[in-house]
Amino acid sequence: MKVVCVNVGLPRVVDWRGRRVETAIFKQPVAGTVRVEADNLEGDQQADARLHGGADKAVYAYPAEHYPYWKEVYPDLSLGWGAFGENLTTEGLAESELNIGDRLRVGTCELVVTHPRLPCYKLELRLGQPDAIKRFLASERSGIYFKVARPGEVGADDKIQLLERDPRKLTVRDAARLYTEKTPDLEMLNVASNHPQLPASWRERFSKKLG
């Protein structure tokens, strides 16, 4: 497992459906190593701190293995690394294999898996595709959010090492399915509603589903 590239970006204002929108989803690969702190990467920002960024979304990774799929879905788009707003484009990570709560060493920092991504309209803005959210959710290619357990530095080609597996065995894909399915697995839902590494808002949603 390794980092293919590190991508960062600052907020910019763009036109979208007749209005001006501020967004930082336009990430670009950078050379060298980048400092990873508790709530962000050096040189990276979020336009709306209410919905993006913060401790539970400090780092967003997206597998390079998903890109061929999207190039088939949108053959007319030029999809370079960072096209999905990810900080880390990775090789060898998979939503179906990583558990919520797994701890990894990436470069010299340590990250903990927190939850899958549920995209907002800015993904459609970034790709210029009005069906991007629907397709993204249906594809089960959510990417992975991490919190920073130990700050450090990360760069392209850095190794990714799995340090600790969470014993609850709730995968990132499992969490995404529980969030969106109308009739989720109750046993798994119970696990998710009490999982300490999931954001509080996710645990609350799962608790309500159980109720």
Strand-pairing-aware structural class = alpha+beta
Shape-level CATH architecture: Beta Barrel
Helical residues, percent: 10-25%
Count of separate DSSP helical elements:
6
- Distance from first to last alpha carbon: 39 Å
Give the SSE order as H and E letters: EEEEEEHEEEHHEEEHHH
Rg: 17 Å
| CATH class category | Mainly Beta
* Main sheet characteristics: 8 strands, mixed
The CATH superfamily is PK beta-barrel domain-like
The count of DSSP E runs of length 2 or more, i.e. the number of strands, is 12
Average of the residue pLDDT scores: 95
List keywords for this structure.
single chain, 211 residues, alpha+beta, M1 Pyruvate Kinase, Domain 3, 8-stranded mixed beta sheet, two-stranded antiparallel ribbon, 24% helix
Describe the structure.
The protein has about 210 residues and is α+β, with helices and mostly antiparallel strands. It has a single domain (about 1-165), classed as Beta Barrel (M1 Pyruvate Kinase, Domain 3), CATH 2.40.33. It is built from six helices and twelve strands. The strands form three sheets. The protein has an eight-stranded mixed β-sheet. α5 (about 185-195) runs antiparallel to α6.
